[in-house]
């Protein structure tokens, strides 16, 4: 500091709305230009990985909702798929397609939240209200199916918690039909808005090499032209059967990442509609007494089911010894769970590789040499949730 | 030739090439390949994977504390090849007191925070890391929580 008396050190956050949570960024300024930018994270560290080691696999599941609380179901999905891979079980088609529907709805909800707050950070007030209006519809649909809004915890190891309520699919269809129309409203507000373009064009440009060097994933990588989407590259849940596009940008700037996320919402709608068309009747969980809970009515009337329920609650699911790494395309990027099992019903080691943590790293590189007001745009364009960063 | 067959053959080629870099062990579980390499050749192996075989995406760096087994700390790296859609797990062991492994920051900028997290939560040092300090926990925190000998519950606080 003493070497540069003209420089000013400013703390952005940790309590500042534009940091999207408790992110602290120590910024060294020369005038309005950021000379050095050091993110300071960990304010929301809850030790989820350590907590998981002391819990059975079923008990771990509610913890995963809290990793990225704007996309609870996406985290559930990553975790249950990793455990199912260890177990070597595959869920019935109905459960698989419902998972896809919920996961894509989660993607839209997460992107809507990003859209509203990102635009708000840059001074556009109206998109926030529009985006939250549609997000609220999704939240109601989550609530109807799972009881929870932010933390649905609807997926289970080996299937789903319960079947869909009456009339739910009709409501989802209605949402998917009206939503692309609503998106036009957002686009009229932003896409050709000269202020929006000047705030986002050529701000935070990332080249292909930088994206690979920083191991970026999700829309941040796709904005730079890399079609890196786990749904396409390493399909899970049968994503290879769906007809959808992986939108990519060209310039790798904040505007392109905006366009990529907008297009992704439309593609998610397409996936949901396709999944609804194919949704068969049938079981919603694997038929394996060592994995899934028996029906409640059976627990009250049959001794075998009572014992099965008792063992699953008391002992948990015994997972074979081994280790797997399972990645999924969460709304913010590649979400991976690496689970090491020692053959007991608790994970020996559970690791969550979250997209926000890895993607946030590039912030210093993007912000240095730019104006302080761009820093706010850059935090928004990486699309982080601090719970996802800190775990 | 079917797609899975093709990728299996390609992976076998990669593993054969890696054996010249002193791979100690290799295996496959649930269709996921892993190799174990000696600590002092880790950087060489990763560089070969990145530059020769296109594993340009360092997905994850983490560790496993295998207490009471020896060697105790196992480092686990996951790399992904975009062209072949292939995943490979590379393992190595940290040794010494404090336990240490070479840093991968010269190869990937992404390794910076990932290694700092492992240092913070496991106390494993990364030789050659430019800025090795705690990342999630406060700088004055004592101990490394993800070690197996670190308690899950805190001490009993006297609330009076």
TrEMBL record, chain A:
Subcellular location(s) of the protein: Cell membrane
Its EC number(s): 7.1.1.-
Catalytically driven reaction(s): a quinone + NADH + 5 H(+)(in) = a quinol + NAD(+) + 4 H(+)(out)
Source domain of life: Bacteria
Gene3D superfamilies registered for this protein in UniProt: Cytochrome-c3 Hydrogenase, chain B
Pfam families (UniProt xref): Complex1_49kDa
Gene Ontology MF annotations: NAD binding; NADH dehydrogenase (quinone) (non-electrogenic) activity; quinone binding
Top enzyme class: translocase
Signal peptide: none
UniProt main location, coarse: membrane
One cellular component (GO) term of this entry: plasma membrane
Cited SUPFAM superfamilies: HydB/Nqo4-like
Subunit structure: NDH-1 is composed of 14 different subunits. Subunits NuoB, C, D, E, F, and G constitute the peripheral sector of the complex.
Known function: NDH-1 shuttles electrons from NADH, via FMN and iron-sulfur (Fe-S) centers, to quinones in the respiratory chain. The immediate electron acceptor for the enzyme in this species is believed to be ubiquinone. Couples the redox reaction to proton translocation (for every two electrons transferred, four hydrogen ions are translocated across the cytoplasmic membrane), and thus conserves the redox energy in a proton gradient.
Family: Belongs to the complex I 49 kDa subunit family.
Name of the protein described by the UniProt record: NADH-quinone oxidoreductase subunit D
Automatic annotation (TrEMBL), chain B:
Functional note: NDH-1 shuttles electrons from NADH, via FMN and iron-sulfur (Fe-S) centers, to quinones in the respiratory chain. The immediate electron acceptor for the enzyme in this species is believed to be ubiquinone. Couples the redox reaction to proton translocation (for every two electrons transferred, four hydrogen ions are translocated across the cytoplasmic membrane), and thus conserves the redox energy in a proton gradient.
InterPro entries cross-referenced by the UniProt entry: NADH_DH_suC (IPR010218), NADH_quin_OxRdtase_su_C/D-like (IPR037232), NADH_UbQ_OxRdtase_30kDa_su (IPR001268), NADH_UbQ_OxRdtase_CS (IPR020396)
Species this protein is from: Desulfacinum hydrothermale DSM 13146
GO CC terms in record: plasma membrane
Protein's membrane topology: Peripheral membrane protein
Name this polypeptide is given: NADH-quinone oxidoreductase subunit C
Keyword Cell division on entry: no
Localization: Cell membrane
Subunit (UniProt): NDH-1 is composed of 14 different subunits. Subunits NuoB, C, D, E, F, and G constitute the peripheral sector of the complex.
